[in-house]
Amino acid sequence: MQWSTSVFVVLFAPYASALLRFPCSQLVTQRFDPLVTPGHVSPHVHQIIGGNAFNLTMDANNDLPDLSTCTTCRFKEDFSNYWTAVMYFKHPNGSFLRVPQVANGGTGAPNGGMTVYYIQPPSGEKVVAFKKGFRMIVGDPMLRTKNVDKNSVAWHTSTFRCWEQLNMSGPGSQYEPGAGLDTIELPKKKCPGGIRSNIYFPSCWDGVNLDTPSHHDHVAYPTGGLDGAGSIFYAPGQCPSTHPVRLPLIFTETIWDTGRFDNMWPADGGQPFVYSMGDPTGAGQHADYVFGWEGDSLQRAMDTCNDRGDYPSSCKALTIQTDQEMNSCYQTPRINEVTEGQYIDALPGCNPIQKGPNPATMVSNCQAISTIENVPAPTQPPLVTTPNLPSATPLPTTNVPAVPPPPTSASPIAPLQTHSGQCGGQGWSGASQCQSPYSCKAQNQWYSQCT
After folding, report:
1. DSSP one-letter string for 237-285
2. pLDDT tens digits, one per residue of 365-390
3. What are phi and psi of 302, to 5 degrees?
4. Cα 149 to Cα 137: distance, rounded to the nearest angstrom
5. Contacts of 365 (CB under 8 A, 6+ apart)
6. Where does the CBM1 domain lie (predicted)?
7. Which of 64, 282, 364, 448 could serve as 424's disulfide partner, Cβ 3.0–4.6 Å?
8. Within the chain, which residues score under 50 in pLDDT?
């Protein structure tokens, strides 16, 4: 949060609801998204945190605590996975460099990653912990503009904070995430202290479906507007009748270290940052969640714990691990392409910059790498820092070879696919017809689903 001590006390003194706040270091950065493109390389790069059972395909019946051998999160019981798109800096010469991250205030020394919150409503209403197999998505990577009222909950689900001073301070720092001077689009000015992305997940559940084909129809945001500070953080709303079960409010923060690029700001004054799906606006910011807490640990924590910000050790229902233990949990990317640590000619995948305002469109006949490979166990954590940057002069770029994907084919004798099953997409060779009354509908270039 990084509010001052006095502001912190004022904001939280009225509340007695449960709150967990903890860091998770980076597990891996690569083009995997087992919710949107299960079994196939994702169209764009994500940074992933959490348990090391994360994979290209993650069956809903998987027991993540049992399959994982470590987690990048502060609490040893949390083997969930969380992932978001990655931010890149576009150099004046047209090449791209992954923007590194810095640790959030009061979180220790995680290796990149995010800060995760689990929040109970201010009324003290008991929340129901997520169940095995639960998963959800917030945001749409294809969006390039959001026409929503600033006083609505929808406006505040995904925002940005420009830290105008170092150490995450300066104007607006006294406000809750999503309030004050925060913006719905990427800041259009230099942010010497970095840019913080704020993402709130829905906290109301239909009580039936652990997932849906859209990955968001089974959840909803509470009704009733914002809290007194103009944020969702402690919004007093109630769950709608269609989604009556109150879940913990999951909120994530990522601190992008954009200040180090201030001396290479474009001559035309335009902001030089772009998300990995070719989004220079921030409207396409999105996040995914797959539940993986061990046993009833999350329910026990939400029933009893309130660290009020920076003290995970105060939650006696859970077990903490050190920065070293968190940072020693990682995976090696399984796609033979460069995504970070050096300048690259283009965003990984086929992601030309699309400014909008219309939604982005998929690139047809994408020739980006679409296969994975077996890799040896990693011997050191992935590189998430950036080399020293020179002034805005042309820099060498790295040509990453593109491997054509396998041809699309469909077996004429394949059985009919069931509801919500995959039925097509680039590289898909399985069933292409759906059982009645469902039809095969393209979700993107790589994935079609029976809906």
Report:
1. -B--TTS-EEPPEEEEEEEE-GGGGGGG--TT----EEETTTBSSSTT-
2. 898 998 988 765 554 555 444 444 44
3. -70, -25
4. 22
5. none
6. 415-451
7. 448
8. 1-15, 379, 383-414, 427, 446
